[in-house]
Design a protein that fits this description.
disordered C terminus; globular; four-stranded mixed beta sheet; alpha+beta; six-stranded antiparallel beta sheet; 11% strand
Length: 461
């Protein structure tokens, strides 16, 4: 019944075409240069061919390969522009689309999970999917009570595919690593693999979405669709129109991009405080920019896909806000002591507190000012600073440790920053941190400085 290549040997062979294809295209490029084409033209053609193959292989496989592609796509802002251009379209495409299941497969899954008379549950059902992603695809329909709904159907064999793909991709991690400077690909793949069972469980997803829909029911800025029906491998929720964030990135006005960025930051930091859950899949395909609720109002943010969440009953750990506040105040010794206590610096390693602060300050720059414009060039600068083996930042970064309990928070934060840079959004980030991040509150923003020698800022909290 499945249209996913399910046998590990088949999927491994497809994934192996990524590094093999890269080697083949390099040979092809050498031949072109010998034949007289300029290196610049050949490089551009090579990059475009690689991007095309990346989407073709990951998109066809869906499963973990597609999930990895979606996770990778939010980091394209960190790529040097001469490389990012050819890859951007292919990676962005992974956020919104994938080759769909055959109609017969969809009907078979719905008959198995909702019963042979499944069509009686709907007044209308569009067999052509409205969206297709890593482990399932979405069909637009009308529920029997007249509500417009989204019907999420899990691909048969998705669990096997996820585990197989991510296991194989981890073996190619070193080859794929250069795609994103300064980022270690292998931990990303490992973390995605650890979340497989949760993402496949539509019961957990429905519970997380219900919690958010209840909490944000009257929110003027954030909209979460209600869950209508939940079954094994099928999830029915209210339909939500709106402009996908990928379109806002590509074609939105500066005002729309700024508004989307502000609300994305607000949702990221307010969610754990309000629901005890952190939405852990912040790629643009999971967000919509919605029209104002009333004339003269502001655009709202629609949020989809709660298949991956981090459970934080007490909200985000206060240590994050406290360390951020102290770093902005220039208190290197206390920041260092806090990081050691929490396990970010192992007991066997001794570092210079001032060097640690110098490493952190450029990264936390967006929180040091009243408003900050997130740009691809800023993110590239950060990535290059950390990726360059000759730089002190690279050497210090290798000595820091990320405790397991912070892995998902770290990835979500980095992913969100990547999306904000794609949006080129000007965001009042410190405003959101002050409102929602435990331990962080700054009373006199005009006195904050990125220089560790600056006069300490008066703080609260």
């Amino acid at each position: 019944m499945s249209d996913l290549p399910r046998k590990a040997v088949t999927r491994t062979a497809k994934l192996a075409t990524l590094p093999l294809g890269l080697a083949g295209r390099a040979t092809w490029g050498l031949g072109k240069r010998i034949g007289g084409k300029s290196a610049e033209i050949v490089t551009r053609e090579l990059q475009q061919r690689t991007a095309d193959q990346l989407f073709k292989v990951l998109g066809e496989l869906k499963g973990g390969a597609m999930k990895f592609g979606q996770a990778l796509s939010v980091f394209e802002s960190a790529l040097p522009e001469e490389i990012a251009g050819p890859y951007r379209a292919a990676l962005t495409k992974l956020q919104e689309a994938a080759p769909p299941m055959p109609t017969a497969t969809v009907r078979a899954v719905l008959a198995e999970r909702l019963g042979e008379e499944w069509r009686g549950l709907f007044l209308e059902f569009e067999e052509k999917p409205a969206a297709a992603a890593s482990i399932g695809q979405v069909h637009r329909a009308v529920w029997h009570d007249g509500r417009q709904v989204a019907v999420k159907v899990q691909y048969p064999g998705a669990g096997e595919a996820l585990l197989s793909d991510l296991t194989q991709l981890s073996r190619f991690a070193r080859l794929l690593g250069p795609l994103i400077p300064g980022m270690d690909i292998k931990p990303l793949i490992t973390e995605l693999r650890d979340r497989v069972s949760e993402e496949l469980d539509y019961g957990l997803e429905a519970a997380a979405q219900r919690a958010h829909a209840t909490e944000f029911a009257d929110d003027p800025d954030v909209v979460v669709p209600e869950v209508v029906h939940q079954g094994e491998q099928v999830l029915v929720t209210e339909w939500m129109d709106g402009v996908p964030l990928s379109e806002v990135i590509a074609e939105g006005t500066p005002e729309q991009q700024d508004r989307a960025g502000q609300l994305l930051a607000r949702f990221l930091f307010s969610g754990p405080a309000r629901t005890g859950l952190l939405h852990a899949d912040p790629h643009p395909g999971n967000f919509r920019l919605l029209p104002p609720a009333a004339e003269g109002g502001a655009h709202r943010l629609g949020v989809l896909d709660f298949g991956t969440v981090d459970r934080l009953p007490g909200g985000l750990p206060p240590i994050i806000g406290e360390a951020l506040r102290l770093a902005l105040a220039g208190d290197a010794d206390t920041v260092y002591g806090t990081l050691r206590e929490e396990g970010f610096v192992k007991e066997s390693i001794v570092l210079d507190p001032d060097a640690v602060l110098e490493y952190l300050l450029p990264i936390i720059e967006p929180a040091a000012v009243e408003e900050f414009t997130f740009t691809r060039s800023w993110l590239r600068t950060q990535a290059a600073r950390i990726a360059d083996p000759r730089s002190p930042a690279h050497q210090l970064g290798k000595q820091l440790n990320l405790p397991p309990s912070y892995l998902l928070i770290h990835r979500v934060t980095l992913s969100t920053i990547g999306v904000l840079c794609q949006l080129d959004a000007t965001v009042r980030l410190r405003e959101e941190l002050s409102a929602w991040l435990p331990g962080f509150a700054v009373r006199k923003p005009e006195r904050i400085s990125l220089r560790k020698t600056a006069e300490p800022v008066e703080t609260a909290g």
